[in-house]
Every structure is written in C-alpha cells, then in structure tokens.
Design goal:
The chain is an alpha/beta fold. The protein is built from ten helices and nine strands.
Length: 254
Amino acid sequence: MKIEEYLSSLPRSIISGDDVELSDETIKEIFRFAELTENDIFYHLGCGNGNSITIALQEFRVKKATGIDNSKEKILQGQRLLQEKHITNGSFLHQDVIVSDISDASVILFWFSDEKIIETMTARFQDLKPGCKIITIWGPIAGYMPDKIDFPYILNITPFKKAESLRDQMLAIFNTDCIDFAVAWEFADRYTKAVGSKNFENDRFLTILQTVVIWINAKNLGIACGDEIPDPVKSYIGILKTFFNIEVEHLLDH
C-alpha cells in the first residue's frame, strides 16, 4: 500500500496527535527553547493531560497558563491536577481551539497535523500582538520563515516573516546547503526522541519512516546531496515495502 493508505488506516486519534503525550522533560526542553519567563502568558492548544500547564506555572513561574482541548476527559484531568497542586493562576478550557480567545497570549504551543486547523490558526496567529511566540513541533508554519530552531522545535514570532519558497524554509530549518542520509537520520531521530513512546521498536520504525520522508522531500525540492538515491535510503525504502507493505517511491518526483 502507498504511505498515504497506511496513514489513513491508523486510528484518527494517533494521526491527530490526540493520543500522543509529550513527556515532562520534552515540555521543559520546549520551554527553555522558547525562553519562557515569569512575564509570559502561556497557552497550550491541544493540551492533552495538562502537564505543560503545571510545569509552566510551577517551574517557569509564568504569569498565567491556559490549556485548551476538545477532549472533556483530558480537560477534567487537567482541572483535577490544578486542584491537587493548589494552583490558582492556571485554567483548562473544553473548547475547539479555532474559536478560543487567545488574544492575550505571549507564548503558544501549537502541535496539530490537521491542515484545516493549521490554516485557520495561522491566520488567527497573525492577529496577535507583536512579539508573540508560536512554538510548533516538526512542521513549521507554512509559508513563513522561522525565527528560532532547535529541531524538532520551531519558533515563529509575530508578525511572521514571509518565506520566499518552501525550499528556503527547509534550508533554514535544517541549516545546511544539502541534505544527505546522515542529516535526514539525525533530524528524524531528534523528532523521535522528543515525541517517542516507551516502545523502542516503534520509535525505531518512526525514525526510519521520517528519515525517508525528509530525504524524499529534500530530493523533490532540489536540496538533497547528489543526484542518486543513497544506498541507506534505498535499503529503508525496500524494508518499508517488503516487511511493512508501505510504498513511498511514488513520492519522488521523477
């Protein structure tokens, strides 16, 4: 099957990220990356279990922190967490993020894969006050140059700076003139370590899949190193097809 068919066969909650919870250490890395301070008003859109809100308030001493999620169960879980820790300057809202009031935000963590949500929120972000920081994971805000990168963490600051092309955006993210197998693997591995599970075999598979996707995207944009497919990429393409029945070669522009 083609990779698109494989992804569509997975539970929607996995694709949307609803069942992926960032570890406490990953949350702290993100906050250090964003230079979160006691002067910030923080929002986590799609907050999940709420650990980011308590960490922002207790360890980074932000002025206010709000978690927003469309899962009532997770919002109730977050609210209980605040009560247990006697935190009064945090809140959780059971809402759709596309209609939530985020006008006072100074830092926002936004990690979604739904293209409609991304498109809607990108337009909303541009109405926020200048200097607001938007943190994404893996994928940059489409059409705009990032202001700071520590892959897989990417930060854009309002007002956004237009990217001349997707190629320029990718070069900025990977900080290299060309992407070879080693670079693709390094960045895929960083992503896996940031969002991976406790199951090592699944993490390894995710790294392989992301490595191939990164290299193919680079090849299609003309920023891969060399004209030939590297042997390791050929091997992984073969492994995905032979052992997992996942075909990715059609993604290559011929």
